[in-house]
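ARCHIVE CARD
Drawer: 12
Card no.: 0347
Subject: one protein chain, sequence and derived structure
Cross-reference: see card 0346
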Amino acid sequence: MSTNAIYTTLELLAKFRFVPAAIIGREVFPHVSDTSRAPMTSRVLKRLREDGLIDRQMVLGRTWVHWLTEAGAHALDVEGGKGGVKLAEYEHDLVIVHLYLTLREHPLVERIITEREARSECPDAENNPWAIPITRQSGKAGYAWPDIITVGPNGRWGHEVEWTRKNKQRLRLLMLAYGHHADYTGGVYYTTPQTSTLINEAATTVNDRLWESGYGRQIITRNLTDTI
């Protein structure tokens, strides 16, 4: 069994809450035929489960997904494993995996970082270069983390998947935080048919406010289906 395949699998799982087995196979064995890829992937995953570094779960009766255990997260020096899939967040988290793989190939993306990687870079949010200071609805100060961060010649952008509707005021506060952050060029919000109206209205309001304050229009909205 290839040591490189083991490390590539662990490094992929260190980026996300979970990854479906089929995606792991394509990432770890990109030049192998579909017929050979499945058993090769299965052997790698079985070995890592036996070593206690990963675990798995069948989701919705059709998809095997894998994630790092606490031991695996410790070995990779990332945030600890969550101990399974949260079904309420499954679709959102799965979309983030697909969005990452899409953005990774964009010619203007020189570096791409997931929320998990960003959080793991420095446990103290105040000193973490990726954290975004935000004022919460309660008035208390806190920090927000983009789902994905890209860095390239067009700047540093936070990417947010809006799979379900959020409180409008909470949404505006986060958008404003992107606009006020000196190191972020802006935020890109990916919408579904259920969230499109809310997100676009909030982005218009925030962009107008940022423009009036001299920051520029820094919030972009995109239909998720046009991207992945």
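Annotation on reverse: Residues 97-226 form a domain with the Trna Endonuclease; Chain: A, domain 1 fold (CATH 3.40.1350). The chain has eight helices and ten strands.
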